[in-house]
Specification:
This protein is of the alpha+beta class. Helices cover 44% and strands 24% of the residues. Bound molecules: adenosine-5'-triphosphate. It comes from Bizionia sediminis.
Length: 701
């Protein structure tokens, strides 16, 4: 066998792919294995160039590669070859420069590394788990090898786009990336920087560039991209929290079990006044001389047991100033050691507030006690008796009145109660009845002033059907109703004179004649009469029968006006306050001293009724538990000036005068005041007399 044939045979049996190429890149030979791998026949192959096989190679890079090989004779690298079908595969190339018959040539011997799939897949897996992609850039021929993970990390599929000059567009800091690459390639400086991508949400890619030097020149760059988004975000979060802690007003101390200060917030240095270099070396025992080793051990044991302990403490600054703090000491176990993380809050302001609050509370307590004492005194002052008949009394004078009531009540004696309007005459009448043997029978009340004169008779004595026009049915009189009971004739002074005889007969004989009937009716009635008029004067005037007066005045009781028994005012006011407060759903409990003084200073022309109305109004107007003096409280001055406080009689007087002015002084007859007022002329005359309106008064103008 010829030597040449042996060589050729050898080239075909060796487990390597081999081809020869000329300076122009033309392929002049390919062994059987190479032809089989790329899928060309030997005859087809010799028509191809290196650019058909390795698509990343350009004429310029081939020339550089050729020159390098010519100089260095050999080189090894990885490359990607393209088959006739268009598929790519990776190879490890050992290139050797040689000349044959003066012809210069490159012999490339290739080992298919894509077949070592086990290692390849292992590397791929490791890369994808670690999120690490690698690449290698040959600066001489510009060839680039990129791992699968590196491609998929950026979603790129072709090498051109992976070149660092293109990759920079993926990062926000394009200039930083470009500079880093230039520094590595030109100055041989390695790079390890995290770049943020432009995507949303962005990722953080750790970029490592390692220059491979040949002599003093960088001929290759090995690059690593690592997706460190998660770590970076965690770090950012940690930094954020560290920032929060540093900027918090609270002081954060992290101590080891031995008492060494491991970490602290900025506020610690700022507040305590220590330098950071001092704090970095400090222990709890230096920072707080009050803490002993025993105490610290016990404290640590407690936080280990309870996980968190809260306490108040006094901290000392570097300059010796002391201030109160609130400490929450938390137990943590970190990197194999026990940690005390204490959050400390300055409570100076709170303590000052507490002190002020304490002082305020003390003052309130003092005022409360004083008020209670006052109230106690007031209660004592007004604590009189509210007897079974709801008659409030404290004054001795009124006690005497009540003693009279008590005395006469059980008898059948006729009682005449006199006194100003609103003094409680009706109340006394009720008390008389309730304390008599007749209490289980009715107490019939008749107000003679409110009844039209012509109706009083039938009201008192009843009538038979047809007794007078309008008597459409029989009517039982009040005397009949009060049989076995009591009749209370209020405003007895208003009783028409012609009826007084009939009344006298009932009083004397216990009988009367029915109006329009034939029968004489016998009744057993106790009579209690009341008047605010001076009946003696009326007798003199001839408008009240003297005999009736004596018959009524068997047992006179004079009801004292309120201004004559002022001691009763506080008690009465309290009684009405409670009554109307409950009624109005308010919470009044007491009257202020000023209110009581105001009430005592007032004369109460309207007597107890006026006081009652006043308190009722005040309860509506005011709020609280104590009734304070307000605009509702009258004075004797405004009583005179204020027309709002005109008495009922004054209003009646004004009204009658107004009408008389209108009728030119005419009282009775057509167009007279009695007709306008729809009342009996005699009644009006009586009223006028009572109110001091003289007949001869000129009413014109
Ligand atoms: N001692 C008292 N204790 C409690 N309430 C009282 C007392 N005296 C009077 N009152 C109350 O004052 C109001 C007026 O009383 P009363 O109607 O008995 O007076 P009066 O003298 O009959 O008035 P008038 O002459 O105008 O009919 C009533 O609501 C009554 O309950």
């Amino acid at each position: 066998m010829e030597i040449g044939l042996v060589k050729e045979w050898l080239l075909d049996v060796l487990p390597y792919e081999v081809f020869w190429a000329t300076e122009s890149g033309k392929l002049v030979y390919g062994n059987l294995k190479f032809c089989e791998r790329v899928g060309y026949k030997s005859s087809e192959l010799t028509k191809l160039t290196i650019f058909d096989i390795n698509t990343t190679v350009t004429p310029e890079s081939w020339q550089m590669h050729w020159d390098g090989l010519k100089k260095n004779k050999q080189d090894s690298f990885q490359a990607i070859h393209k088959k006739k079908t268009g598929a790519f595969y990776e190879v490890e190339v050992f290139a050797q420069f040689f000349s044959n018959n003066r012809k210069e040539m490159v012999c490339a011997i290739m080992n298919d590394i894509s077949s070592s799939s086990f290692y390849k897949s292992l590397i791929n897996n490791v890369e994808s788990i670690a999120k690490v992609g690698g690449w290698k850039l040959n600066l001489q021929d510009g060839s680039l090898i990129v791992t699968k993970e590196a491609f998929s990390m950026f979603g790129i599929h072709n090498k051109e786009a992976f070149h660092p000059s293109k990759m920079l567009q993926y990062f926000k800091d394009e200039a930083g990336f470009r500079n880093g690459f230039i520094q590595t390639t030109r100055k041989g400086l390695p790079l390890d920087v995290v770049f943020e991508t432009k995507e949303t949400p962005s990722r953080f890619i750790r970029t490592i560039l390692k220059p491979i030097l040949k002599g003093d020149k960088v001929f290759e760059v090995i690059g690593v991209y690592q997706d460190v988004t998660e770590q970076t975000k965690k770090e950012t979060k940690l930094n954020f929290f560290k920032n929060v802690i540093d900027n918090a007003e609270d002081l954060v101390f992290v101590y080891s079990r031995s008492g060494k200060l491991l970490e602290y917030s900025n506020s610690v240095a700022n507040t305590l006044g220590y330098s950071k270099s001092k704090l970095n070396q400090a222990t709890i025992f230096e920072l707080d001389t009050g803490v002993t080793k025993e105490w610290w051990e016990a404290h640590f044991a407690e936080i280990i047991e309870k996980r968190s302990v809260q306490m108040e403490w006094i901290l000392t600054k570097k300059d010796g100033t002391r201030f109160p703090v609130d400490i929450v000491a938390n137990y943590m176990h970190y990197e194999g050691q026990d940690i005390n993380c204490a959050v400390v809050r300055d409570i100076t302001k709170r303590k000052e507030r507490d002190l002020k609050l304490y002082q305020a509370l003390e003052e309130i307590k003092f005022l409360k006690n004083r008020l209670e004492d006052e109230n106690e005194y007031l209660k004592e002052e007004i604590s009189g008796k509210i007897n079974a008949n709801n008659i409030v009394c404290k004054s001795d004078v009124y006690e005497k009145v009540l003693a009279q009531v008590k005395l006469v009540a059980p008898t059948d004696t006729t009682v005449l109660i006199t006194g100003e309007s609103g003094t409680g005459k009706e109340l006394l009448a009720s008390a008389l009845h309730d304390n008599s043997l007749r209490k289980n029978r009715p107490l019939i009340k008749v107000n003679c002033a409110t009844l039209p004169k012509e109706l009083i008779e039938s009201e008192l004595f009843g009538h038979k059907k047809g007794a007078f026009t309008g008597a459409v049915a029989d009517k039982v009189g009040k005397f009949t109703l009060a049989d076995e009971g009591t009749i209370f004739l209020d405003e007895i002074g208003e009783m028409p004179i012609d009826l007084q005889a009939k009344l006298l007969r009932v009083l004397q004989e216990g009988e009367f004649d029915e109006l329009g009937g034939t029968k004489t009716i016998k009744v057993n009635v106790r009579v209690i009469a009341a008047t605010n008029r001076r009946l003696e004067d009326m007798i003199k005037e001839g408008s009240f029968r003297e005999d009736l007066y004596y018959r009524l005045n068997v047992f006179p009781i004079y009801n004292i006006p309120l201004r004559g028994r002022k001691e009763d005012i506080p008690l009465l006011a309290q009684f009405f306050l409670e009554k109307y407060s409950a009624k109005a759903g308010k919470s009044f409990k007491r009257l202020s001293k000023k209110t009581i003084n105001g009430l005592l200073a007032y004369d109460f022309p309207g007597n107890i009724r006026e006081l009652e109305n006043l308190i009722e109004r005040a309860v509506i107007l005011e709020n609280g538990t104590t009734l304070h003096a307000g605009s509702w409280l009258p004075t004797n001055n405004n009583m005179v000036n204020n027309t709002n406080f005109l008495t009922f009689e004054a209003v009646q007087r004004q009204h009658i005068i107004k009408i008389l002015q209108h009728t030119n002084g005419k009282v009775s007859g057509r167009g007279g005041a009695a007709e306008v007022l729809q009342m009996n002329a005699k009644t009006l005359f009586a009223k006028m007399k009572k109110l001091g309106i003289e007949k001869h008064t000129t009413f014109t103008g």
